[in-house]
Amino acid sequence: MRILHILSQMPDYTGSGKYVQEMIRQGRINGHEPFLIAGVSADFELPESLIRHEFCRLVRFEGQDIGFPIMGMSDVMPYPSTVCSALTKLQIIEYRMAFARVIGSAIADFAPDVIHSNHLWLASAVAREVAPQVPLVTTCHGSCLRQHRLCPELGDSLKGALRGIDRIIALFGQQKTDIVELLGIDPDRVDVISGGYNELCFYAEEDESDADAVQFLYAGKLDSSKGVPWLLRSLKSVEAPWHLHLVGAGSGPEKDLCLELAASHGQRVTVHGVLSHEALGGLMRRCAVFVLPSFFEGLPLVLLEAMACGCRIVTTDLPGAKELFAVPHPSMVRMVELPDLETVDRPYRADEPLLEQRLAEALRASMADVMNKVEPDQDYIRKITGSYTWEGIFARVEAVYRQALEDR
Fold it and tell me: Which residues form the Glycosyltransferase subfamily 4-like N-terminal domain (predicted)?
């Protein structure tokens, strides 16, 4: 099968970029021929280890194919980006024309059997309009639903094309409900298939750490919607011994705030920046507790990666986290209850002290388990992570491709 993959932004390999990378890798393993269209920054270089250059088309931002910085699917990205809600009408037209030109060229040259796009947003709408004759499968990663709420006028203009997508993949059950409600489509056209994790990078091994402090780890964007300032403030009331590792990147005032709060803890916080999957897996194996204090997520696969490495989990009780850990465990997973939020990813200021108290309590409880030598439950880890390998995930995605072809 010839599969054309479309991703609107690919400056790194996190989130949807990681997903597309694995779809290409698993597709090739299973005998399919991939082709990639990706929006990238002006100086981005796509490694041929992912896909040969003759089998990809890059839409370059920052004055090349498109004049403005790459459009992020979140309002805060770990690189210079354009916020969707700030797009002018002329910029939207420019974006549409650039992607339409490249998608049309790839259709003519590659003649795909199926298109697999990512995000129920601009690039997927353009793909449907340019190639109505080719079966189109789109994976929703969650951030696109957030943009429909933040940019309702632009979102409404896309819904006609998005309703024409043959099959949509939701990452978890609540997301499917949200998609059906947003687009008003038949639920039978929406398949629930999570993302996966790379078991070659994320795995457990015998703990050889002799650290005196309990090692906490956060990995993700350094910004407020991910709850990083909240985490750093909460730790002020968590007694030693602990050490926090922060992995990830950010930009602008949000990043500056996170780094300022991290510095206020002195030597008890280490800021690592961006790490490769291999390096992140190694760090996870040295840490006892992984913390995800986020206010908005799709399906947070980083929780699976951390658990596969033997970490206990402290996370907010977002729908994606609840889906992953539907079977509760008294010491392996602690969920912090979120109150009603003011926006899709911001709490009310009046609730911040309560949030800090709840997170601090969860961190103390996980610390106590570590210090009391409560061993991670390996049976529970295998039960939770076993169905999320990329090999198994791709087999289910492949079935969706075939269903899209049959539906035609």
Answer: 14-195
Fold for domain 214-386?
A: Rossmann fold (3.40.50)
> Does 2-196+389-407 carry CATH code 3.40.50.2000?
yes
Cβ 41 vs Cβ 79: under 8 Å: yes
| Sequence-distant (≥ 6) Cβ neighbours of residue 101 within 8 angstroms | none
> What average pLDDT score do residues 44-50 get?
85
DSSP structure string for 242-270: EEEEEE----HHHHHHHHHHHHTTGGGEE
- What's this model's pTM, rounded to 2 decimal places? 0.82
199-254: pLDDT as tens digits? 889 999 876 555 789 999 999 999 898 999 999 999 999 998 999 999 998 888 99
Secondary structure class of 143 (helix, strand, coil): helix
Residue 53 burial (10 A CB sphere; 0-12, 13-18, 19+): exposed
Q: Residue 12: pLDDT above 60?
A: no
Q: Under a CB-based contact definition with an 8 Å cutoff, are residues 268 and 242 in contact? A: yes
Domain limits, CATH 3.40.50.2000, in the chain = 2-196+389-407, 214-386
Query: What are phi and psi for residue 256, nearest 5 degrees?
Result: -60, -40
